[in-house]
Write a structure and sequence with these properties.
The chain is α+β, with helices and mostly antiparallel strands and about 160 residues long. The protein has 4 helices and 5 strands, in the order ααααβββββ. It has a 5-stranded mixed barrel with strand order 1-2-3-5-4. β2 and β3 form a beta hairpin.
């Protein structure tokens, strides 16, 4: 009986708040950001619950039930995720490998043995100019003053190791 009286207590404002709350949550799911839309959605749903409830105690009970249901769905979701059973469109199955020609860093091995001019102080990291191209470089711990000539010892990924010439 109490459930029927609760349904009779639903007003147009409750329906609008419910739809607005769900809308905010959907926006948060589609365009995640700082959580503003998610928080607004949850607040809107809680206000909707309290407006629909006949007493404040009933509002708290319904809010607690709401959060228990959310926690149950979250538990089910985490269980599915931990078993690796996500929908295929949510998981990236392809990988880019070096064999296929993909590289995260530009190959700068051609710089080994080249000389350049330090444009900032290297302590031990700095910037050097190699034929008009400014690159981040690092020494092996030595302090190299601005304006000194350096030679490239080795290149590993995007790490260019130099020493004073």
């Amino acid at each position: 009986m109490e459930f029927i009286s609760l349904l009779a207590n639903i007003s147009a404002l409750s329906i609008v708040l419910f739809l607005v709350g769900i809308g905010f949550l959907v926006i948060e799911l589609i365009e995640p950001g700082f959580g503003v839309f998610g928080i607004l959605g949850i607040v809107s749903l809680i206000v909707c619950i309290f407006i629909t409830a006949q007493t404040v105690a009933q509002g708290f009970i319904l809010t607690a039930i709401f959060f228990v249901i959310i926690l149950i769905f979250l538990g089910i979701f985490l269980s599915v995720v931990s078993k690796g059973k996500l929908p295929k469109r949510l998981v990236l199955h392809e990988s880019e490998t070096l064999d296929q020609g993909f590289s995260g860093a530009e190959d700068v091995q051609y710089l080994v043995g080249k000389t350049g001019l330090v444009t900032t102080i290297c302590r031990p990291a700095g910037i050097a100019d190699f034929d008009g191209v400014r690159l981040d470089v690092v020494s092996r711990g030595e302090f190299i003053e601005k304006g000194k000539t350096v030679v490239v010892l080795e290149c590993e990924g995007n790490r260019i190791v130099v020493k004073e010439k």
